[in-house]
Amino acid sequence: MACMDDIDRFAPLLTDDDINERVEQLIGRACRAQLWLLFLDERAVMLPTLMPNDELPAPLDAELAEGIAAMLRQAIGGTPIESVILVWERPGGPIASESDRQSAAALAWACADAGVPVRGQLISHDFGVRWFGAEEYTGLLDAAGTVEG
User: Fold this and answer.
1) Would you say residue 5 lies in a domain?
2) Is 3 a domain residue?
């Protein structure tokens, strides 16, 4: 893991690979279960604030997802934050569990409903970091927007 001083923090994160590499540098392999919030400005430059959130239930329920999305919506107002990156740090392998998919789906839906642009979701696991593509969890949303499970 690198500290922000060791990274060209002004380099824009234009691709999924750029984001994956930055998350690998800053968060790296999982140590514990928590959700990290990272923020990008309008130029896709990562802002220097990283917010770890632990003690979240697994899977994340819709009510808590809505609360996180509402907090993010409020945080975005009047700031240079243009979009959010969500990193699900948790022990285990790289394959997304049902709990991972349910949590990602709940928060993706809540953020979309609150008007919070999510640039991407990733998983920090025992062996590194990987992109957590929407195709892995969007099928869990039913027509009413609730998480099936």
Assistant:
1) no
2) no
Cα separations in angstroms, 51 against 27, 84, 86, 108: 11, 11, 10, 17
Query: How many domains does the chain fold into?
Result: 1
Nearest to 102 by CA among 133, 53, 62, 43: 62
Token pair for 143: 């027509």
**Residue 52, amino acid:** P
CB 61 within 8 A of CB 99: no
Q: Give, for 83, the enclosing helix (H) or strand (E).
A: strand 83-89
Q: Determine, yes or no, domain membership for 4.
A: no
Three-state secondary structure call for residue 21: helix
- CA–CA separation, 8 vs 45, rounded Å? 10
pLDDT digits (tens, 9 = 90+) for 85-125: 999 999 999 999 999 999 999 999 999 999 999 999 999 99
